[in-house]
Automatic annotation (TrEMBL):
Belongs to the bacterial solute-binding protein 1 family. Keywords: Signal. It holds the Pfam family SBP_bac_8. This is ABC transporter, periplasmic substrate-binding protein. SUPFAM superfamilies: Periplasmic binding protein-like II. Residues 1-27 form the signal peptide. The keyword Cytoplasm does not apply. GO terms for cellular component: periplasmic space. It is found in: Periplasm.
Length: 431
């Protein structure tokens, strides 16, 4: 009987130990909320779902709950609203240009505060052009993921019908206008059935104007995000050119051109040339029912495009375990192999040079050379417009562009007003 009791006691102790171990294991599982923006066409959400599910299979101690919060601006608004309500996401993909805003809101932590100095070496794996919108004050606040440049797409059938070489895109502003005139088609009543050029002026209007400004030899902000140069004569010339595409040259629709519907207009042959993110590359490849070309943006005094897209940020209201888990997730999502596959699946630029050396990416570029256009354009890339209080500053610029393209203000009037507003907003940050 004594032996039986001893055996029972041992079994009970073992069961208790196993129960405690199981409880500890459950307690140690980290749950992360992940905010992700959806702002371009294609099955992006399905791709993200697949990646997070694969991550959780490989990391059973970390659970990821993706939240698809709309376009970038909506995602930022929801993240900051959640922050003020005490329940922000643990990790989020937000615009690289949101970095100063997130720092000013005390919303995020630098990776340097989570990782050891030797671990931070992984940040050197990314293209320097993308890291310029990810670091400030000697610290790394964002890790590039969904990054892009603006590229030009054209309908080769439309080029051929207009008597143009379908393999030769406009290389400069003058050629853009000249080719645009040949590509603009009207029916017997004089109604335009196909425009030559479509450059969106809603959604990310500031981004498109920044591209034109860069090509005209001016940058719209300083590196510290405390000053803007919206009323620089070269910036005014850039906006004037955008307005003149419709009003003077007649190669583009008058009024605003919607960011979200421009790809559809391209697919439906309503425009022969469009400017949009390389993040639409896979969308165009799958949906364009005609041969198309992809090229760098045309130059004026110089070639160039702003970089764009999103970074991974880790939010401050999180435990040490949650921050470590978030870093693990970010490093996994941005590894060379996954950066390559993300670029292949979406059209975004694979954010690190070694991703382009993977077999998958080499095979993809060999079969579809246009995939490398955005990468090659990084040689002429400039950091996207980013300032403190960036949402308000870019809204001032967006409003100015809207006023100019709709004719309620001249480009000079609109940009001078935007500059005055930007100076008012940034006054507190100027040193």
């Amino acid at each position: 009987m004594a032996l039986f009791r001893k055996t029972c006691a041992l079994v009970a102790a073992s069961l208790l130990s196993l129960t405690l171990m199981a409880g500890t294991a459950l307690a140690e599982k980290v749950n992360l909320t992940f905010y992700f923006p959806v702002s371009v066409g294609g099955p992006i959400t399905k791709i993200v779902e697949g990646m997070t599910e694969q991550f959780m299979k490989e990391h059973p101690d970390i659970n990821i709950t993706p939240v698809y919060a709309g376009i970038y601006r909506e995602t930022l608004t929801k993240a900051l609203t959640a922050l003020r309500g005490g329940e922000p996401p643990h990790v989020a993909v937000l615009l690289s240009t949101d970095m100063y805003t997130l720092i000013d809101e005390d919303a995020i932590v630098p990776y340097d505060s989570i990782m050891k100095p030797e671990e931070m070496a992984f940040t050197k794996a990314f293209f320097p052009g993308f890291m310029s919108n990810s670091q400030t004050g000697g610290k790394t606040w964002g890790i590039p993921f969904q990054r892009s440049t603006i590229v030009m797409y054209w309908n080769k059938e439309a080029f051929k019908a207009a008597g143009l070489d379908p393999d030769k895109a406009p290389a400069n502003w003058q050629e853009l206008v000249a080719m645009g005139k040949k590509l603009t088609v009207k029916d017997e009543s004089g109604k335009v059935t196909q425009w030559g050029v479509a450059i969106p002026s809603t959604g990310y209007a500031y981004w498109m104007l920044q591209a034109l400004a860069i090509q005209n030899g001016v940058e719209l902000m300083n590196a510290e995000g405390t000053k803007t140069y919206f009323d620089d004569p070269k910036a005014i010339e850039a906006l004037t050119f955008l307005v003149d595409l419709a009003g003077k040259h007649g190669v583009s629709p008058s009024g605003t051109i919607d960011w979200a519907t421009t790809p559809r207009d391209f697919f439906e042959r309503k425009t022969a040339i469009m400017w949009t993110t390389t993040g639409n590359l896979t969308n165009v490849r799958k949906n364009a029912q005609f041969p198309f070309g992809v090229g760098m943006l045309p130059a004026n005094t110089r070639p160039g495009s702003p970089t764009g897209g999103g970074n991974f940020y880790i939010f401050k209201k999180s435990t040490p375990a949650e921050r470590q888990a978030a870093v693990t997730f970010v490093k996994w999502m941005t590894s060379a192999e996954r950066a390559a596959q993300w670029g292949i699946d979406t059209g975004y630029v694979a954010v690190r040079p070694d991703a382009w050396e993977t077999k998958a990416m080499k095979d993809y570029v060999a079969s579809f050379p246009y995939a490398a256009i955005a990468r090659d354009q990084l040689a002429h890339g400039v950091a996207e417009l980013s300032t403190h209080d960036n949402q308000r500053v870019t809204k001032a610029l967006d409003d100015a562009i809207q006023a100019a393209v709709t004719g309620s203000k001249t480009p000079a009037e609109a940009l001078k007003a935007a500059q005055k507003e930007a100076e008012r907003i940034l006054r507190r940050y100027a040193k």
